[in-house]
Amino acid sequence: MKRYMVSHSWQILKKELGLYQLTMDIIRMNRVCRMFRQGLRGLREYQIIETAHRKHPIFSFWDKKKQGRITFDTMDFIGESGHFPPRAIQITQKKPAWRAEREIQSLCNLLQVLDSYRNYSEPLQMLLAKVMRFERFGRRRVIFRKGQRANSFYFIYLGTVAMTEDEDGSSVFLDPHPTLLQKGSCFGEMDFLTSSVRRATVVCMEETEFLVVDREDFLANKLDQEVKKNAQHRFEFFRKMDLFHSWSDEKLWKLVILGKIEKFSYGQLISKDFVESSSIVFVCKGSCEVLQLIDLATSPFYHKWIWQHLQLIDDRSPNTHLKDLSPVERFKEFQIRSYPVQDFSFLKLLHLRKAQEQQGSSFSRKIKTSGNTLPKTLGSKIKSRCPHFIECPMIDTKYGDLPKEAAVGAYVKIHTVEQGEILGLHQILLPESQRDTRPLILVSLGAEVIRVRKEKFCELIDSKTIEKLSKFEIKYPSDEDVCQKFLKENCWNVFRKDLMRLLVEPRQCPPFTPIQPKKKGIYKPKAVMLDLCSLDKKTRPRHPIFMAPQKYLPPLRIVEAIIAPRYKIQELLPQ
Fold first, then answer.
1. How large is the C-alpha radius of gyration of the chain?
2. Is 469's pLDDT higher than 90?
3. Of the candidates 456, 447, 462, 446, which has an alpha carbon nearest to the alpha carbon of residue 424?
4. Pairing of strands 288-295, 409-417
5. CB 205 within 8 Å of CB 160
6. Crossing angle of helices 223-239/249-258, nearest 10°?
7. Contacts 24+ apart (CB under 8 A), 31-35
8. How many C-alpha atoms does 89 have within 13 Å on its Cβ side?
9. 433 or 288, which is more confident?
10. What pLDDT was estimated at residue 353?
11. Which has the closest alpha carbon to 300: 375, 195, 223, 206?
12. What is the C-alpha separation between 87 and 105, in angstroms, rounded?
């Protein structure tokens, strides 16, 4: 009997030990998985992404107040380059009702890097941050297909997607110019808000990270009411415009649905060329500037201006001729004024140029900047000066030779667009032969605009709207007028700076300027200045030169100011 009791108790103990061992194995496995996830910080869904490596990720210091050592792990605050941060992923994995106000606000701050997210109002941004969930898909993954019901819309946080008309999405990898959407874009919202089917297929071109808003969470958290408020504001804006007074509410609501609101900060580019853009821009808040890229070398006024300033490069004082002259010098001056000496040196230069062209020699030659060798287009002969030779490469323009370094361009403001104005409609009824095809750039001064596609807008206009559009005309200045405006403003700015230096008393001791380390890619004022005094210098500039692309032309150097040879301002002012 005792033997039976011992064997029975041993079997029970064996079973309890086995259960205990199983429990301990589960606990250890749980701890290992937790440490694995904690250490990698990159185990998300089906893919592991390695974190950035640091030499000393953990450091500690002794706290005297707490009498203990405090350890700080920097890896807890590191995210992979460009990827959605791990802490933000943990927030999006929670249910909307479980997210704290502080977490929603931090997520909202993180999403400000997305342009499409910033376009929404602040209350709607907070609500979107509350319901978003995170997704990551690999290359060739189809997000949704054409014809499917729209139950969600997407914000692209990282990566690129393509839109196509076929159902499987394979054509985007064969198309040389597919329709691409990149980081900051949003897609699927129009089909989502109108409860319609998908009008295109969207495919991932690479590994892409999304923030997704589902219809169930959208309606449960009353985001539709906030969207209706924003739509009502746009309806009221269109209703106040004279162009749409004859439109019915139904037609105006169609325009509201077609419009896409966008917000731009000060100095942000809205459109590289709104003349050829496929959209119409309505400025509903703030203002914008219209800029034009002007090629200064194509202007005769600029050509004349350059040569007039190059003749001052010898830096002679303008008051030298006001001093008492000797009788011989006065007689020579009288001869020059009464009987100007004919100068036929330009015929020799023309002959030499033809000879150089036949021999295929370089365009580089010496420019003799004396009064007797200036082009005849500059007017009457001025007082002869001591010659000064500069050597620089030349280019042949329509109006004569021009130093190669002086062939530059500039962005000039030609118009300001205020709140309530429209861009893209002033030539919509003109035939293509009569349209002004010059590229015009639109830059924000802190504006909120509504974009509507031209083809969709033309489907809604009626005869009364066409009659109003026929009277709607904006005439922008010619290239020559823009060039003259730029040079006049440049001369005034240079004179103002020289005058301020003269009037403001110089400090006895130079101001303290802290030494700052040089950083790459920092804007330098010299990079956008053309110095005519240094045309003959062979030293290469150490600052970057900004180049702007032109239509059908090679890139053009962009300048903001031109520093020309000039007299000292003390000699121009009365003594």
1. 36
2. no
3. 456
4. antiparallel
5. yes
6. 120
7. none
8. 16
9. 288
10. 66
11. 375
12. 13
